[in-house]
Amino acid sequence: MPTRVLIPAGALGLGFDVAALWRGIETRPDIIVIDGGSTDSGPHYLGTGTSKYSRAATKAEWKLLMEARARAGVPLAIGTAGTCGTDAMVDRMYDITCEIAAELGQSLKIARLYSEQDPAAVEAALKAGKIRPLWPEQPLDETVPDTCSHIVALAGAEQITAALETGADIVIAGRCTDTAPIAALPLLRGEHPGAAWHGAKIGECGALCSTNPTSGVIVIDFDRTGFTVRPMAEGARCTPELVAAHMLYENADPQILHEPGGRLDVRAASHEQADETAVRVSGAIWHEGPYGVKLEGARQVGFQSCALVLLRDPAYVAQAEKWCALLEARLHREIPARLELARGDYHLELRQIGRNATLGALETASASPAEIGVLLIATAADQATAREIARLANPHLLHMPLSDTEPQATHAFPFSPPEWDRGALHEFCLNHVLACDDPMTPFRLCTDEVHHA
Question: What is the pTM of this model?
Answer without folding.
Answer: 0.94
